[in-house]
Amino acid sequence: MRLLLLAVPLSLSLLSYAADAALGALSATLKLTLKSRDGTAVYAEATGNKNGPHVIFAHGLACTNAAFDPLFNDAKLTSSLYMVRYDTRGHGLSGKPLTSDFYTTDRYADDLKAVIAAFRLNKPFFVGWSLAGAISADIASNFPQPLPFSGLVYMASLPYIGDILPKVATAKVLSFLPGLQATDDATLSLKTRIDFVETLSAQTATVPYATKLAWVGSAVYLPPTVANLALSRTQDPKALLAAGAAGWPLLILHGTADLQINGTAVIANMKPAFKNVETHLLQGAGHIPFYDAESNVATLLLAWITRISTTKPY
User: Is the peptide bond preceding residue 146 cis, with omega within 30 degrees of 0?
Assistant: First the structure.
Protein backbone atom coordinates (compact mmCIF):
# COMPACT_ATOMS: atom_id res chain seq x y z
CA MET A 1 0.00 0.00 0.00
CA ARG A 2 2.82 2.34 0.91
CA LEU A 3 4.51 1.68 -2.41
CA LEU A 4 1.24 2.49 -4.16
CA LEU A 5 0.89 5.75 -2.28
CA LEU A 6 4.47 6.66 -3.14
CA ALA A 7 3.81 5.91 -6.80
CA VAL A 8 0.85 8.29 -6.99
CA PRO A 9 2.87 11.49 -6.41
CA LEU A 10 5.51 10.19 -8.82
CA SER A 11 2.88 9.60 -11.52
CA LEU A 12 1.42 13.03 -10.94
CA SER A 13 4.89 14.55 -11.18
CA LEU A 14 5.52 12.80 -14.50
CA LEU A 15 2.18 14.00 -15.85
CA SER A 16 2.96 17.52 -14.68
CA TYR A 17 6.39 17.36 -16.32
CA ALA A 18 4.86 16.17 -19.59
CA ALA A 19 2.29 18.95 -19.49
CA ASP A 20 4.97 21.55 -18.75
CA ALA A 21 7.08 20.23 -21.62
CA ALA A 22 4.14 20.46 -24.01
CA LEU A 23 3.39 24.01 -22.89
CA GLY A 24 7.06 24.89 -23.20
CA ALA A 25 7.00 23.84 -26.84
CA LEU A 26 4.25 26.35 -27.55
CA SER A 27 5.85 29.57 -28.71
CA ALA A 28 4.67 33.13 -28.19
CA THR A 29 4.56 35.05 -31.45
CA LEU A 30 8.06 35.97 -32.57
CA LYS A 31 8.29 38.94 -34.94
CA LEU A 32 11.47 39.61 -36.92
CA THR A 33 12.63 41.88 -39.70
CA LEU A 34 15.28 39.95 -41.59
CA LYS A 35 17.70 40.81 -44.36
CA SER A 36 17.64 38.82 -47.56
CA ARG A 37 20.92 38.17 -49.40
CA ASP A 38 20.49 41.31 -51.51
CA GLY A 39 19.76 43.45 -48.44
CA THR A 40 15.98 43.62 -48.90
CA ALA A 41 14.08 43.62 -45.62
CA VAL A 42 11.82 40.62 -45.04
CA TYR A 43 9.22 40.88 -42.28
CA ALA A 44 8.23 37.54 -40.75
CA GLU A 45 6.59 36.15 -37.64
CA ALA A 46 6.14 32.73 -36.10
CA THR A 47 3.94 31.05 -33.52
CA GLY A 48 2.83 27.59 -32.48
CA ASN A 49 4.40 24.32 -31.41
CA LYS A 50 8.13 24.19 -32.16
CA ASN A 51 8.08 20.41 -31.77
CA GLY A 52 5.46 19.99 -34.50
CA PRO A 53 5.94 20.14 -38.27
CA HIS A 54 7.21 23.49 -39.50
CA VAL A 55 5.02 25.34 -42.02
CA ILE A 56 5.69 28.55 -43.97
CA PHE A 57 2.75 30.60 -45.27
CA ALA A 58 3.11 33.14 -48.11
CA HIS A 59 0.31 35.49 -49.17
CA GLY A 60 -0.97 36.62 -52.54
CA LEU A 61 -0.64 39.79 -54.61
CA ALA A 62 -1.78 43.02 -52.93
CA CYS A 63 -2.16 41.26 -49.57
CA THR A 64 0.05 40.75 -46.50
CA ASN A 65 0.80 38.06 -43.97
CA ALA A 66 -2.04 39.45 -41.81
CA ALA A 67 -4.54 37.78 -44.15
CA PHE A 68 -3.65 34.48 -42.48
CA ASP A 69 -5.02 35.60 -39.08
CA PRO A 70 -7.90 33.07 -39.19
CA LEU A 71 -5.43 30.17 -39.42
CA PHE A 72 -2.91 31.64 -36.99
CA ASN A 73 -5.68 32.12 -34.42
CA ASP A 74 -6.82 28.49 -34.72
CA ALA A 75 -5.75 26.61 -31.59
CA LYS A 76 -5.85 23.20 -33.25
CA LEU A 77 -3.23 24.40 -35.71
CA THR A 78 -1.01 26.36 -33.33
CA SER A 79 -0.98 23.50 -30.84
CA SER A 80 0.23 21.06 -33.50
CA LEU A 81 2.31 23.09 -35.97
CA TYR A 82 5.09 25.67 -35.85
CA MET A 83 3.64 28.30 -38.18
CA VAL A 84 5.67 31.01 -39.92
CA ARG A 85 4.29 33.74 -42.17
CA TYR A 86 6.08 36.53 -43.97
CA ASP A 87 5.44 39.51 -46.20
CA THR A 88 6.76 38.75 -49.67
CA ARG A 89 9.08 41.32 -51.18
CA GLY A 90 7.27 44.44 -52.31
CA HIS A 91 4.41 43.89 -49.85
CA GLY A 92 3.46 44.86 -46.31
CA LEU A 93 6.37 45.51 -43.97
CA SER A 94 8.98 43.96 -46.26
CA GLY A 95 11.25 45.98 -48.54
CA LYS A 96 9.91 47.40 -51.79
CA PRO A 97 12.72 47.75 -54.33
CA LEU A 98 11.57 49.28 -57.59
CA THR A 99 13.76 47.66 -60.26
CA SER A 100 13.36 44.32 -62.01
CA ASP A 101 16.70 42.89 -60.84
CA PHE A 102 15.18 42.58 -57.37
CA TYR A 103 12.32 40.38 -58.61
CA THR A 104 14.17 37.43 -60.11
CA THR A 105 13.50 33.84 -59.12
CA ASP A 106 16.66 33.55 -57.03
CA ARG A 107 15.72 36.64 -54.98
CA TYR A 108 12.40 35.07 -53.98
CA ALA A 109 14.23 31.90 -52.98
CA ASP A 110 16.76 33.93 -50.98
CA ASP A 111 13.91 35.46 -48.96
CA LEU A 112 12.76 31.97 -48.02
CA LYS A 113 16.31 30.96 -47.12
CA ALA A 114 16.50 33.93 -44.76
CA VAL A 115 13.21 32.95 -43.12
CA ILE A 116 14.28 29.31 -42.74
CA ALA A 117 17.59 30.29 -41.17
CA ALA A 118 16.17 32.90 -38.81
CA PHE A 119 13.49 30.62 -37.38
CA ARG A 120 15.66 27.48 -37.55
CA LEU A 121 13.11 25.58 -39.60
CA ASN A 122 13.58 21.92 -40.45
CA LYS A 123 12.16 20.65 -43.74
CA PRO A 124 9.19 23.02 -43.64
CA PHE A 125 6.01 22.67 -45.62
CA PHE A 126 5.33 25.60 -47.94
CA VAL A 127 1.81 27.02 -48.26
CA GLY A 128 1.38 29.46 -51.13
CA TRP A 129 -1.87 31.38 -51.37
CA SER A 130 -2.87 32.91 -54.71
CA LEU A 131 0.17 34.45 -56.49
CA ALA A 132 2.48 33.05 -53.79
CA GLY A 133 1.80 29.59 -55.17
CA ALA A 134 4.25 30.60 -57.90
CA ILE A 135 7.03 30.74 -55.32
CA SER A 136 6.99 26.93 -55.58
CA ALA A 137 8.78 27.33 -58.92
CA ASP A 138 11.38 29.56 -57.25
CA ILE A 139 11.90 26.89 -54.60
CA ALA A 140 12.31 24.11 -57.13
CA SER A 141 14.75 26.11 -59.27
CA ASN A 142 16.98 27.40 -56.46
CA PHE A 143 17.14 24.76 -53.73
CA PRO A 144 19.05 21.47 -53.97
CA GLN A 145 17.27 18.27 -54.98
CA PRO A 146 15.62 16.52 -53.30
CA LEU A 147 14.03 19.71 -52.05
CA PRO A 148 14.48 20.50 -48.34
CA PHE A 149 10.73 21.06 -48.03
CA SER A 150 8.40 18.35 -46.74
CA GLY A 151 5.57 19.30 -49.06
CA LEU A 152 3.76 21.97 -51.01
CA VAL A 153 0.28 23.40 -50.56
CA TYR A 154 -1.51 25.34 -53.28
CA MET A 155 -4.27 27.36 -51.65
CA ALA A 156 -6.34 29.07 -54.37
CA SER A 157 -2.99 29.32 -56.14
CA LEU A 158 -1.41 30.30 -59.39
CA PRO A 159 1.14 27.46 -59.67
CA TYR A 160 3.72 29.47 -61.59
CA ILE A 161 4.04 32.60 -63.71
CA GLY A 162 3.92 31.79 -67.39
CA ASP A 163 1.77 29.95 -69.89
CA ILE A 164 -0.54 28.61 -67.19
CA LEU A 165 -1.91 32.06 -66.28
CA PRO A 166 -4.56 32.34 -69.03
CA LYS A 167 -5.53 28.72 -68.41
CA VAL A 168 -6.46 29.23 -64.74
CA ALA A 169 -7.04 32.96 -64.18
CA THR A 170 -10.56 34.34 -64.52
CA ALA A 171 -11.48 37.26 -66.75
CA LYS A 172 -12.37 39.17 -63.58
CA VAL A 173 -8.92 38.99 -62.02
CA LEU A 174 -7.21 39.70 -65.36
CA SER A 175 -9.33 42.87 -65.62
CA PHE A 176 -7.79 44.11 -62.37
CA LEU A 177 -4.19 43.94 -63.56
CA PRO A 178 -4.04 47.29 -65.43
CA GLY A 179 -5.43 49.15 -62.42
CA LEU A 180 -3.16 47.39 -59.91
CA GLN A 181 -0.16 48.38 -62.04
CA ALA A 182 -1.29 51.90 -62.98
CA THR A 183 1.24 54.59 -62.04
CA ASP A 184 -0.46 57.57 -63.71
CA ASP A 185 -4.03 57.32 -62.41
CA ALA A 186 -4.42 57.38 -58.64
CA THR A 187 -8.21 57.11 -58.82
CA LEU A 188 -8.09 53.95 -60.93
CA SER A 189 -5.33 52.48 -58.78
CA LEU A 190 -7.28 52.92 -55.55
CA LYS A 191 -10.63 51.86 -57.02
CA THR A 192 -9.09 48.70 -58.43
CA ARG A 193 -7.72 47.76 -55.02
CA ILE A 194 -11.17 48.13 -53.50
CA ASP A 195 -12.78 46.11 -56.32
CA PHE A 196 -10.05 43.48 -55.94
CA VAL A 197 -10.83 43.09 -52.23
CA GLU A 198 -14.52 42.64 -53.01
CA THR A 199 -13.66 39.46 -54.94
CA LEU A 200 -11.66 37.76 -52.18
CA SER A 201 -14.53 36.25 -50.21
CA ALA A 202 -17.49 34.46 -51.73
CA GLN A 203 -19.54 35.97 -48.90
CA THR A 204 -18.26 39.50 -49.45
CA ALA A 205 -21.60 41.06 -48.45
CA THR A 206 -21.23 39.63 -44.93
CA VAL A 207 -17.52 40.35 -44.43
CA PRO A 208 -17.24 42.93 -41.61
CA TYR A 209 -16.41 46.44 -42.77
CA ALA A 210 -13.34 46.54 -40.52
CA THR A 211 -11.99 43.38 -42.17
CA LYS A 212 -12.47 44.85 -45.63
CA LEU A 213 -10.69 48.03 -44.53
CA ALA A 214 -7.76 45.91 -43.38
CA TRP A 215 -7.65 44.05 -46.70
CA VAL A 216 -7.81 47.33 -48.67
CA GLY A 217 -5.06 48.73 -46.46
CA SER A 218 -2.87 45.74 -47.28
CA ALA A 219 -3.47 46.34 -50.99
CA VAL A 220 -2.49 50.00 -50.64
CA TYR A 221 0.88 48.91 -49.23
CA LEU A 222 1.67 47.50 -52.70
CA PRO A 223 3.27 50.14 -54.97
CA PRO A 224 1.92 49.94 -58.54
CA THR A 225 5.46 49.55 -59.89
CA VAL A 226 5.98 46.50 -57.67
CA ALA A 227 2.70 44.98 -58.86
CA ASN A 228 4.04 45.16 -62.40
CA LEU A 229 7.42 43.70 -61.41
CA ALA A 230 5.87 40.85 -59.42
CA LEU A 231 3.53 39.89 -62.26
CA SER A 232 5.96 40.27 -65.16
CA ARG A 233 8.91 38.34 -63.74
CA THR A 234 9.87 35.16 -65.56
CA GLN A 235 9.90 31.63 -64.20
CA ASP A 236 10.85 28.25 -65.62
CA PRO A 237 8.49 25.54 -64.31
CA LYS A 238 10.69 22.62 -65.42
CA ALA A 239 12.29 22.06 -62.00
CA LEU A 240 8.89 22.32 -60.31
CA LEU A 241 7.36 19.71 -62.60
CA ALA A 242 10.41 17.48 -62.17
CA ALA A 243 10.05 17.69 -58.37
CA GLY A 244 6.40 16.76 -58.70
CA ALA A 245 7.24 13.78 -60.87
CA ALA A 246 9.86 12.72 -58.30
CA GLY A 247 7.19 12.63 -55.59
CA TRP A 248 7.24 16.05 -53.92
CA PRO A 249 3.91 15.95 -52.05
CA LEU A 250 1.27 18.45 -53.15
CA LEU A 251 -2.04 19.44 -51.55
CA ILE A 252 -4.44 21.59 -53.59
CA LEU A 253 -7.19 23.41 -51.69
CA HIS A 254 -9.51 25.56 -53.77
CA GLY A 255 -12.93 27.10 -53.38
CA THR A 256 -15.66 26.36 -55.92
CA ALA A 257 -16.79 30.00 -55.79
CA ASP A 258 -13.35 31.56 -56.43
CA LEU A 259 -13.77 34.64 -58.61
CA GLN A 260 -10.04 34.97 -59.36
CA ILE A 261 -8.58 31.52 -60.04
CA ASN A 262 -10.37 28.47 -61.48
CA GLY A 263 -9.63 25.62 -59.10
CA THR A 264 -10.81 22.91 -61.47
CA ALA A 265 -8.37 24.21 -64.08
CA VAL A 266 -5.51 24.29 -61.56
CA ILE A 267 -6.17 20.65 -60.66
CA ALA A 268 -6.46 19.64 -64.32
CA ASN A 269 -3.11 21.26 -65.15
CA MET A 270 -1.09 20.27 -62.07
CA LYS A 271 -2.43 16.91 -60.88
CA PRO A 272 -0.97 14.94 -63.81
CA ALA A 273 2.48 16.43 -63.10
CA PHE A 274 2.62 15.40 -59.42
CA LYS A 275 3.09 11.81 -58.38
CA ASN A 276 1.87 12.41 -54.81
CA VAL A 277 -1.10 14.78 -54.89
CA GLU A 278 -4.29 15.30 -52.90
CA THR A 279 -6.98 17.72 -54.04
CA HIS A 280 -10.07 19.24 -52.43
CA LEU A 281 -12.64 21.62 -53.90
CA LEU A 282 -14.32 23.48 -51.05
CA GLN A 283 -17.99 24.07 -51.75
CA GLY A 284 -19.00 27.73 -51.62
CA ALA A 285 -15.56 29.06 -50.67
CA GLY A 286 -14.02 31.94 -52.59
CA HIS A 287 -10.50 33.10 -53.28
CA ILE A 288 -9.70 33.36 -49.59
CA PRO A 289 -10.80 29.86 -48.53
CA PHE A 290 -9.14 30.05 -45.12
CA TYR A 291 -11.54 32.89 -44.33
CA ASP A 292 -14.66 31.51 -46.01
CA ALA A 293 -14.15 27.93 -44.79
CA GLU A 294 -11.48 28.23 -42.11
CA SER A 295 -12.43 25.18 -40.06
CA ASN A 296 -12.57 22.94 -43.13
CA VAL A 297 -9.26 24.27 -44.46
CA ALA A 298 -7.57 23.85 -41.07
CA THR A 299 -8.82 20.27 -40.72
CA LEU A 300 -7.71 19.26 -44.22
CA LEU A 301 -4.37 21.02 -43.89
CA LEU A 302 -3.54 19.47 -40.52
CA ALA A 303 -4.60 15.97 -41.59
CA TRP A 304 -2.47 16.12 -44.75
CA ILE A 305 0.60 17.54 -43.00
CA THR A 306 0.29 14.88 -40.30
CA ARG A 307 0.04 12.13 -42.91
CA ILE A 308 2.97 13.38 -44.98
CA SER A 309 5.09 13.92 -41.87
CA THR A 310 4.70 10.28 -40.87
CA THR A 311 5.54 8.78 -44.28
CA LYS A 312 8.89 8.25 -45.95
CA PRO A 313 10.25 11.50 -47.45
CA TYR A 314 10.15 11.61 -51.23
Answer: yes
